[in-house]
Amino acid sequence: MTSATRTVQEVAARFDELARQEKWFEIQEELFAEQVKSIDPPHSPYLGYAEGKAAVRKKGEDWVKKIQAVQGVYTTPAVIGGQHFAVGRGMDVMVEGFGRVKIDQIMLYEVKDGEIILEQFFY
């Protein structure tokens, strides 16, 4: 199935399948549009804004490189509304420069033409 034919429900289902396996870079590669935008909360001490598939991947890679230990993670099933879906995500990790970080967040995704065009984090 090509991405152009995927519905929001199909994108969310595939996202869920990969997220359960902690395959975040595979999610980016398979489901993200070339001009995807990634937005963290204003004044986030961890990450910021990135635009474009390569920049969003680098943002994720930079975060992963700083993780020294993982105490626990979870991702909830998606809730779908219109062209959006959201998941809950929790992390309890040791992060270089920050120490132990516990984040419980909502991750919101917007889908257009079968691809994710926006990810936005609320924590």
TrEMBL record:
Residues 7-123 form the SnoaL-like domain. SUPFAM superfamilies: NTF2-like. This is SnoaL-like domain-containing protein. It comes from Chitinophaga arvensicola.
